[in-house]
Write a structure and sequence with these properties.
alpha/beta; three-stranded mixed beta sheet; 13 helices; 43% helix; globular
């Protein structure tokens, strides 16, 4: 298949490219820069110039492809709600270009949307439309497209990691560096699920090959890593104190991250593993946090 991949030069997308090529697919990768086009060509993919603001470029890329994988997202979390609304528009544009066909649109969301309530295990057959995470717009838009007859499936992401990036933990690390203290809330028992980036990239390829419509996959290798463990790993890496904070103190300390810092959001991938034959084998989140070069992270 010829696959239009948004976010093709990003953290996850750049790992999806070789997965798709090795499986015999052609990749048309969205990029907004000459450097991105060069890196895609070097990887063996074709570049498609455009960005998330240029909806016509997205429609064109989707229209001339056999399937679309949408991983691009604006990760400026200081404008998180606006960026989730942007993702809604992007998904609508991509879906509109595929309407009336049997071509798959594989979109991206977060595992929390599959939790029926705080602290309850997120599963693939649950869609909590009342979840407080603004990223729910992505799945709501995908669901509306499905109702309209577009072939849509969802990959839900946990904290995706290697030794350079770790999802929301990366900005948490920079916050810790700025504040000089690594914090968790209360006893720090709330958990974040995790998955290594290479395992996640493989899951996207398996989901593409499966060609199932209207399903959700959880890209979860670890159901939940406690925030206290995460804070202690960051504290050790940066050589700063590790402290517990009350919920009242946390709002001032974490800033925009306070939306997520107290969330207990374990997630299962039992169905995903059985459905796709997906067996994550990459390093754990704690292993990557322990092995990362914190001096390099400071320069990034």
């Amino acid at each position: 298949m010829r696959v239009f991949l948004t976010g093709a030069t990003g953290f996850i997308g750049s790992r999806i490219v070789p997965e798709l090529l090795a499986a015999g697919h052609q990749v048309l990768g969205l990029t907004r820069s000459d450097a991105g086009a060069q890196s895609l060509a070097a990887a063996g993919a074709e570049a498609h110039r455009g960005d998330l603001e240029d909806l016509d470029s997205l429609r064109t890329g989707a229209a001339k492809s056999d399937a679309v994988i949408h991983t691009a997202f604006d990760h400026d979390f200081s404008n998180f709600v606006a960026n989730c609304e942007k993702d809604k528009r992007v998904i609508e544009a991509l879906g509109g270009a595929l309407a009336g066909s049997d071509r798959l649109l594989l979109i991206t969301s977060g595992t929390g949307m599959g939790s029926p309530g705080p602290g309850q295990l997120a599963k693939e057959d649950v869609f909590n439309t009342e979840h407080r995470n603004p990223r729910i717009l992505s799945e709501l838009t995908g669901a509306a497209l499905t109702e309209a007859g577009v072939k849509v499936s969802v990959v839900r992401l946990p904290q995706v990691h290697d030794t350079v990036k770790q999802g929301l933990i990366t900005p948490l690390l920079e916050l810790t560096r700025a504040k000089g203290v690594s914090a968790y809330i209360g006893e720090g028992r709330n958990r974040w699920p995790a998955g290594h980036v290479l395992d996640v990239a493989r899951l996207y390829r398996l989901a593409l090959d499966k060609q199932a419509a209207g399903v959700r996959y959880n890209a979860v290798a670890e159901e939940g890593v406690s925030m206290r463990d995460i804070a202690e790993a960051i504290g050790a890496g940066l050589n700063v104190p590790v402290v517990s904070m009350s919920p009242e103190e946390a709002a001032g300390h974490f800033g925009w991250l306070s939306i997520f810092a107290d969330l207990d959001m374990p997630a299962s991938s039992e169905w995903t593993r059985a459905e796709l034959g997906w067996q994550p084998s990459g390093p754990t989140l704690m292993a990557d946090l322990e092995r990362m070069d914190y001096s390099q992270a400071a320069a990034a």
